[in-house]
From TrEMBL:
Species assigned in the record: Nonomuraea cypriaca
Gene from which this protein is expressed: dacB
InterPro entries: Beta-lactam/transpept-like, Peptidase_S13
SUPFAM superfamilies assigned: beta-lactamase/transpeptidase-like
Pfam family, one: Peptidase_S13
Name of protein: D-alanyl-D-alanine carboxypeptidase/D-alanyl-D-alanine-endopeptidase
Keywords associated with the record: Carboxypeptidase, Hydrolase, Protease, Signal
Length: 514
């Protein structure tokens, strides 16, 4: 994991201190009405934006210190949350699995070893580790070779039975199938990078010698590349996997280096192909084919790799809003609680956790928020964010939330380019959410009086470009909220006018600025 220097996070520390104390701390005696009327007026003004005339907007602001509702509009209405769904998935996962939870990936001997020959099958068994890289599979292969095995007479068995065989989530759009943010879910998978985009391959193009050269990360022949691109004066290229196949077709013109993250069709086959290639590189020959199946009884462990802890995984998961992490954790929860690695079992765990913590309006169809049938109310999100403050794991989870205006990628995350140089910078910690026609921002902010606030802003069914700047204006206004001191609200609202806005999570489109 990447680490940040103290100087990068020092600005966030001041805001974090307000959340370090228990929510049961004695409330400071404050005038309950001073300043609240102005806050209400200002938020109403922000929400009067013409882009929201035909849209739906739900907003709730609550004092974490007094429990007082400071602002609410359509607080109980069911709205599409997009990636705000990850607030529920992540908290349920930490509660259910624990911060020390790890995903093991194991190689087992399902035959008899006679000298350098393994008579029987070699098994690769996964439990969903989204952080497995090609180098990790190579390390497992190296251990097999180090055990003295040079020949496997049987098959390479890929055991992905820890999860069920349903690869794509409920209600996911068919045209997202090849997008890395909607990659298939399997107990055996691989990532091409340390963002841990499991189930995808980076396909890169560049001009070389008058032709377009294609490379992949990791280096793999799993995908069939059909290169129809030509060198041109500008880069206007499409890299796309054909529906339901392993074939990636590249068309257009290439003037410079360019790359795309492409979801594979079958993560189990992809991961086992990487492992098989590594076995060969280390001098281990497998005579039989690669098949899928359960590990036979009595198989003996040859090698094992364990992932980072869940507490560490929270950082790339939440900072970069990684959909695949959310879905893997959902199935892992189902396996842990009901011995069923399914969406149904995992979503029941998340829903039960939410309801046990006072959440009323909730409809979860997946763990990431890709489903447009996911639904929460702003008040339900605020209730969850309030309830988890008393959990022993809260500080670790809170630190995984993106921080507004902090340019360090694994600190600011999806908020790194928003609200910079405003009172919300290094103060607001929240979860973003974006789909076409949907945007949301929910989280925590410390007021100008040092009062911790909890908020949720959900905007649905707009036809304009993304109105993320409206979320930013509300968050900035909350950072300036004072119960007694007048606030120059118009000046603060103008500060948000240059907020970066896009129709999707910036990490989903992988731009340089995210």
């Amino acid at each position: 994991m990447r680490r940040t220097s103290a100087s990068l996070v020092a600005g966030a520390l001041v805001a974090a201190l307000a959340w370090a104390s228990s929510p049961s701390s004695p409330a400071v005696a404050l005038d309950p009405s001073a300043g609240v009327a102005d806050l209400t007026q200002d938020i109403n003004q922000i929400l009067s934006d013409s882009r929201l005339t035909i849209a739906r907007a739900g907003v709730v602001v609550k004092s974490a210190q007094t429990g007082e509702d400071l602002y609410a509009t359509d607080a109980g209405k069911l709205l599409t949350p997009a990636s705000n769904t990850k607030l529920f998935t992540s908290t349920a996962a930490v509660e259910t699995l624990g911060l020390d939870y790890r995903f093991p990936t194991t190689v087992l001997n399902a035959g008899r070893k006679l000298g350098s020959v393994l008579t029987g099958d070699l098994v690769l068994r996964g439990t969903g580790d989204p952080t497995m890289l090609a180098e990790d599979y190579d390390a497992l292969a190296k251990e097999v070779a180090a055990a003295g095995i040079k020949l496997v007479t049987g098959k390479l068995v890929a055991d992905d039975t820890w999860f069920d065989g349903q690869r794509l989530g409920n209600d996911w759009a068919w045209d997202d199938e090849t997008a890395y943010y909607a990659a298939p879910i399997s107990a055996l998978t691989a990532s091409p990078d340390t963002d841990y985009d499991a189930g995808s391959v980076i396909v890169a193009v560049a001009p070389e010698g008058g032709k377009v050269k294609v490379t992949t990360t990791p280096d793999t022949d799993y995908l069939k590349i059909v290169n129809k691109a030509t060198v041109g004066s500008e880069t206007d290229v499409l890299i796309e996997r054909q529906h339901g196949t392993r074939t990636v077709v590249i068309t257009g013109t290439v003037a410079g280096s360019y790359q795309e993250w492409v979801a594979v069709d079958d993560p189990t086959a992809y991961a086992s192909s990487l492992f098989r290639a590594s076995l060969a590189a280390h001098g281990v020959k497998v005579l039989g084919p690669t098949v899928t199946g359960a590990t036979p009884a009595g198989a003996r462990k040859l090698a094992e790799h364990e992932s980072m802890t869940l507490g560490e995984l929270l950082v790339p998961f939440m900072k970069l809003s990684n959909n695949i992490h959310a879905e893997i954790l959902t199935k892992a929860m189902g396996r842990e609680v009901a011995n069923q690695g399914t969406w149904a079992a995992g979503l029941k765990v998340s829903t039960d956790f939410a309801r046990a913590n006072g959440v009323q309006v909730i409809n979860m169809r997946d763990g990431s928020g890709l489903s447009r049938r996911d639904g929460f109310s702003p008040s339900s999100i605020v209730q969850l964010l309030s309830a988890v403050r008393s959990k022993p794991w809260f500080s670790t989870w809170y630190d995984s939330l993106p921080i507004a205006g902090n340019s360090e990628r694994f600190v600011g995350g999806t908020l790194r380019s928003r609200m910079a140089n405003t009172p919300a910078a290094n103060n607001v910690r929240g979860k973003t959410g974006s789909l076409t026609g949907v945007t949301a921002l929910s989280g925590y902010v410390t007021s100008a009086d040092g009062e911790p606030l909890i908020f949720s802003v959900m905007l649905n069914q707009y036809l304009s470009g993304s109105p993320k700047d409206i979320e930013d204006k509300i968050a900035i206004r909350l950072a300036q909220f004072s119960r007694a001191t007048p606030v120059d609200a118009p000046a603060q609202l103008r500060a948000a006018d240059n907020a970066t806005a896009g129709d999707l999570e910036c990490s989903w489109t992988k731009p340089v600025e995210c």
